[in-house]
Amino acid sequence: MLTRLYCGALQGIDAFTVELEIDYTRTGIPAFVMVGLAEGAVREAKERVFTAIRTSGYRLPSARITVNLAPADRKKAGSAYDLPLAMGLLYASEALSPSINLGDFFFAAELSLNGNLRPVPGILPLALLARSLGVKAMVVAKENAIEASIVEGLTVYGLSHLSEVTAFTCEQEIFEPIKYAHKDKEYAFPLDFAEVKGQEQAKRAIEIATAGGHNILFIGSPGSGKTMLAKRIPTVLPPLSFEEALEVTTIYSVSSKLTEKGLVTERPFRDPHHTVSEIALIGGGSYPKPGEVSLAHRGVLFLDELPEFQRATLEVLRQPLEDGAVTIARAAHTITYPASCMLVAAMNPCPCGYYGDLKRSCTCSNLALGRYQSKLSGPLLDRIDLHIEIPSVPYEDFRGTLNSRSSEQMRASVEKARKIQAERYKGTPCRTNADLSGSSLEKFCALGEAEHEFLGRTVENLSLSARSFTRILRIARTIADLEGAEKIEKKHLAESIQCRVLDRAKR
Asked: What is the value of pTM for the model shown?
């Protein structure tokens, strides 16, 4: 008997349709053959599935079984095929007589040896695939049910055991579908910029960076507050929209990093150690997974002690920072992961950390200083919009009371600027000012004659690259948005140039 079911396989953060065909023939020598480029966990499904069927009280007669996973030219990995394979075998062997058409349902779960359903990674993209196929319902492990039910228009059943699935398909027992309750969550951040004494210039730079989605680099001596400032940046970012939350949840789903059930509603903050490998940072591996830059999608990627990272590791960030995506090429396929994040980096000005400090003297030689600064390539630094000096906090600021702007006040300004950008870029690929390039940069960052003359002198005097010129325009556009100004003025350009410390340091 020939049985056909639909299931899915992951490629990157997307899923593609897999047609599971089972030919169950009781003539000939008993055997089990699986074809269709099945990887290790899929081939091992035979042992799990047959044992789970037996411990669930069913007996399969001896037969020659051929299982085909179509399309045959694309690799299939993971354990999500266990449940559809078990249901297909039970139906094809006539050990089960379901009252529903199995082809109208989408099954995705791993089976334990005693028949329990176990959760699998990537259930959200599989649920999106199930909805696109127009199936009547999706059956998953109970632990995956909330995540799958995020997809609107899809009926989801979360079950615990293979016997429950068979009872469901035979309509011997009624189960209630899982409903996802979308809630507007109120966030109470444990950190707040109101706790930061001094560093008003740095806070202003952070406000600009978050308003326009710009990358930012803090340069300062040890203890000046670089890490403290960076960890508070998520508190001033606007909340995720539903579409953005769905993107982030999908990435975390395929990475098996969902720490709570349901939609990810907080912007990610990833801070890998400087010993991180290239693959861990950018993604990849024998079974490609998203790296830290993709896990920070729509959020913040914080790289502390930037020069301590391996130079080759940092250089792999150049393309994602420019394109907002990571492309991993393999011989058989190419995978693209989204990686539109805000890069926040921090570094000391020299190996000892006190070059230019007013309180302590630097002990580094010119050779050591040059070697330290050369760890960061020009092209990488060009991709960081704001370079901000973080001076040591004077004692007067320490003894003063907390009267600086809070995260809530800063977030209100950021959200106002983001709304201006959303309205301006409606119908374009741009989301924020950091996305501006080419013709869109010329259109939305048009300058008057006086502004052109001012910026021209700056470019000439500082020998700025074309990329630095673009960054200055983007930052100026954001500063104008924070003020509610329609056109970029000279004061906006001047403040933008002040946010590019390393450009001015070349002189």
From this structure: 0.91
Contact 123/148 with Cβ under 8 angstroms?
yes
CATH 3.30.230.10 residue spans of the chain: 2-169
For residue 339, the model assigns a pLDDT of 95
DSSP tag of 9: E
Task: Report the SS3 class of residue 103.
Answer: helix
Does residue 260 surpass a pLDDT of 70?
no
Q: Cα(368)–Cα(224) distance, rounded to whole angstroms? A: 22
Cα separation, 213 vs 236, in Å, equals 12
Q: Which residue, among 500, 180, 184, 222, has the nearest Cα to 357 in the 3D structure?
A: 222
First CA to last CA distance, the chain: 80
CA-CA distance, 493 to 500, in Å (whole number)?
11
Is the Cβ–Cβ distance between 160 and 116 less than 8 Å? yes
262-296 burial, b for 16+ CB within 10 Å, e for fewer? Answer: bbbbbbbbbebeeebebbbbbbbeeebbbbbbbbb
Q: Where are the alpha helices (DSSP H) in 357-406?
A: 366-373, 378-382, 395-399
3-state secondary structure of 305: coil
Q: Which fold has domain 2-169?
A: Ribosomal Protein S5; domain 2 (3.30.230)
Report the chain's mean pLDDT, rounded to a whole number: 91
CA distance 82 to 309: 42
Rounded CA separation 174/168 (Å): 7
Residue 370 — pLDDT band, cuts 50, 70, 90? confident
- Residue ranges, CATH 3.40.50.300, the chain: 193-430
Tokens 């803090």 found at: 218
Angle between helices 200-212 and 466-483 (to 10 degrees): 100
Average pLDDT over residues 8-18: 93
Helix (H, G, I), strand (E, B) or coil at 138: strand
Residue 102 vs residues 137, 165, 395: alpha-carbon distances, Å:
10, 11, 72
Structure tokens at 300: 């913040």
Rounded Cα gap, residues 67 and 283, in angstroms: 32
Report the 3 state secondary structure along 154-165. Answer: CCEEEECEHHHH
Homologous superfamily in CATH for domain 193-430 = P-loop containing nucleotide triphosphate hydrolases (3.40.50.300)
Distance between CA atoms of 155 and 163, rounded to whole angstroms?
20
Query: Per residue in 198-207, pLDDT tens?
Result: 888 999 999 9
In angstroms, rounded to a whole number, what is the distance separating the alpha carbons of residues 442 and 446? 6
